[in-house]
Specification:
28% of the residues lie in helices and 22% in strands. By secondary structure, the chain is α+β, with helices and mostly antiparallel strands. The chain has a single domain, classed as Fusion Protein Consisting Of Minor Coat Protein, Glycine Rich Linker, Tola, And A His Tag, Chain: A, Domain 2 (2-Layer Sandwich), CATH 3.30.1150. A four-stranded antiparallel β-sheet has the order 1-4-2-3, with helices on one face. The N and C termini lie far apart (37 Å).
Length: 122
């Protein structure tokens, strides 16, 4: 189903304790089915991610998603500089892979979704 054009652009929560307003972002966040899909993926990931109390830098995670919405594979493409945080990111990605996204991409086309962790101090 298409999102109405008057629907607000998706937003993904707020940062954790160390982020001071930092945020998660995903590729193609915006209006329409693509934006809604990427927001759903990022939101699912955020549900399982536990931020460590130590400060960390920007990081990126790449999720390879099938046309049915399964996470085929994932990898950390940019380290946060804090091994404990990188492990938390990968643990959350493994849980998303095991439990699924709960949605399929628009037009059931496989794609790569990048989740970016952007601390406000960057």
């Amino acid at each position: 189903a298409k999102a109405p054009s008057s629907a607000p652009a998706p937003t993904i929560g707020t940062g954790g304790v160390n982020w001071n307003g930092g945020k998660f972002t995903g590729d193609a966040l915006g209006k329409g089915p693509e934006g809604a899909f990427h927001a759903a993926v990022t939101g699912r990931f955020r549900k399982y991610y536990t931020e460590p109390p130590e400060a960390f830098g920007p990081a990126e995670l790449e999720l390879h998603v099938t046309g049915t919405g399964a996470v085929r594979s994932f990898r950390l493409t940019k380290s946060s500089g804090l091994p404990k945080n990188d492990e938390a990111i990968l643990a959350a990605a493994a849980r998303v892979q095991a439990e699924g996204l709960g949605t399929s991409p628009p037009e059931n086309r496989p794609r790569v979704v990048t989740v970016r962790f952007i601390p406000s101090s960057s």
